[in-house]
């Protein structure tokens, strides 16, 4: 039987309560079930991501990873996205058990994207271009999620005491409402950042997609966070983020106007969300993301 890492167990229980505790207790048995079913043997130390246990294994496909995640909504469509991509720009999916959120995946390096800023942003864009395959009709869409995002932003703005300038929040809300009308029919990653881009024998590949169809410019914001602290040292923040967005759009094919607007909206939402959790919203106005969001309007 495997031993669930204590920090992962504690974090899961703190986040999910009794449901998380029950799942942690089931994990060793679930692991044994899928090691046997998929004819795998453990081949290294057990680690974890934010919501899933990661186990290197030897499999009939070669070196692989057994990943078992908590039944989190963000993981539901991951295997469908991986099946569509078939290893083009993402790790390969060998087998799956949706009922237990268990996946058998290609094993790649643990090296995360760690290149100079401009090169890394371009690689993220190039991968996104490869992931932009036609989505199936049953895939969730960014457009359908926009209403929930709009309601969330209204709530964040209210609970923070409306600390951000009205034109900044208004621009974000307008973008979100426009996103609800967008009908881009191709796949996107949904959470494209350096931690979800790993080195492999095939070059850089993505992991942990949200499995969503829609405007690829939505992923610009998370790539703008690459080397974020270095970017904040630029003498002209607006010019620096315009330059970074251009690199991303040239590589990904995303529309530059959409990339700027969605980055602005996501920075507003992120600044409010994080500061509500940490400072009850009081520090949101001085959050660097809120400052940049004002420059991108």
From TrEMBL:
Gene Ontology molecular function: any one: phosphotransferase activity, alcohol group as acceptor
SUPFAM superfamilies named among the record's database cross-references: Protein kinase-like (PK-like)
Biological process, per Gene Ontology: secondary metabolic process
InterPro entries with a match to the protein in the record: Kinase-like_dom_sf, NH2Glyco/OHUrea_AB-resist_kin
Protein's name in the database: Streptomycin 6-kinase
Organism: Microlunatus endophyticus
